Amino acid sequence: MPSQAHSELRAALDRSKAALITVAWLSALINVLLLGGPIYMLLIYDSVLPSGSFATLFGLLVMVALVFAFQAFFDFLRLRILADIGAALDARMTGRVHRVVSELALRSDTKGEDGLVPLRDLDAVRSFLSSPGPCALIDLPWMVLFLALLTLLHVWLGVTALAGAFVLIGLTIINDRLTRVPSETASRARARLAKLAQDNRRHIEVIRALGMGERVYDHWHGAHAAFNAAQDELTRIASALSGASRIFRLFLQSLVLTVGALLYLAGEASAGIIFASSILAARALAPIDQAIAHWGGFQAARQGWARLDKLFGVIPDASAPSTVLPAPTKSLQVEGLAAIPPGAARPVIEGVSFTLEAGDGLGIIGPSAAGKTTLVRMLVGLWQPAGGAVRLDGASLDQWDPDDLGMHLGYLPQQVELFDATIAQNIARLVPGAPSEAIIAAARAAGVHDMVVRLEDGYDTAVGSNGSQLSAGQRQRIGLARALYGDPFLVVLDEPNSNLDAEGEAALDAAIAAIRARGAIVALVAHRPAALRHVNKVLVLQSGRMAAFGDRDAVLGEMIQSPRPGSIDAPAYRAAGPGSAGSETVSTAP
Predict the structure, then answer these.
(1) Fewer Cβ atoms within 10 A, N terminus or C terminus of the chain?
(2) Which residues pair with 539 in a beta bridge?
(3) pLDDT at 65 over 70
């Protein structure tokens, strides 16, 4: 875990230092004003009752009312400032945590976990800061003042309260040690349960169609039972210790009254001291009781803080480059590229090198598990290279801010994910106020405009969660339009025709030809030979290495002449493209 000196959370909290100092001063005033009750009780019994003075009684009542009014006002201010501190910390760190969540989603070694844990951790920290819990911790040192005043009234009153304080502190330490492991176990079980619920919802069609409902429920029920068991153990321990603390504090008040009564009978204390000491003892020990009551929130915040600090150390906040590079217009260079997916030990691809110039179209082919999808992820900067580099116009991808780089890239993954928004918003990549002309231009480039306007609400059609209101083919074509939005220089398509009909295939062919015609570069993974009709270069991957790269017809012709065991069906690819017997040759020049 990063040291506190290098904690991003600590640095963000330090920006509220003035507010924290104000809270400390308000706490001092509140604790001083808490003396008003015991002093009032002391004066009533030792001055008002013996003298029978009504004027003194009402005068003391007015003064104690003012004391309680100021105490309530300062306490309100303290809680309000703490809430503002929590909100300010959340505002400063929510973007950072969101970027961490996004980065975790790209890491295959975290796919089995609930990726929203960091957001919940930040919420736990903010919630604790905004609760009365910090007040109890801040008030703890003021116990010394109240214990000192009890000792001034009589040494045995101070000794009794001090012994009670040690018992309550011991209960607090026991509470921390006994609930730490159950709290972490419950937190992990909650995260696993949430992950299973998300997965079950995402795969509901497969679950229903394959009759897996009962087995999936049994799986989820087992996780739910584990969470309940962990939560029950935590609640049982916390409730027992909290109850023991509360009952002991009440007993301690009675014990202090008993000691005061003994001192009164011995002639060493007045009647006012008996009742004033009971109130002072209650005030002295109240912060411990409150700390135990808020211990669950404190533990959640502490564990969340530790996890976030650890994540921030693993995923540093990369600052955006200070210089904004011009839009690429010339080339894509891949130099000795190696990729090791997160959680893997060995490279999935290694030693891949090629160059594409403006107007080139590249078909990436190879058998299953050859590394094709890994390569396209590297081309759009989703994973950092383990070796080598991907360059646009000579600059490596990490020289761009990710959002700026995205403006120059178009990407269509195998699984098309659409946002719960309108078709227009999805095509425009959620850019607010995106011009209609640019949206329609991208739709026309993807050949999807006519399909969209035939829908009842046209471009304002809501696609539903993950595009549930659209067919697989429609989602893929909308995804292609999104990839083409803004005329990006590099367009990367991973199996773009996997869900397309004849009309969609024709639209894809036209889109690829148009990308190349405007001087951009297109790279696509092709499992269906028809996808290579409008590319001029082919890259063959096998076992993560380049088996061949060059002119499409030359590479495929060489593969036909010298087929390799376990390789792809090169004749099928060649027969589908131009240059084969009986087909019209399509120019591959930019």
Answers:
(1) N
(2) 364, 549
(3) yes
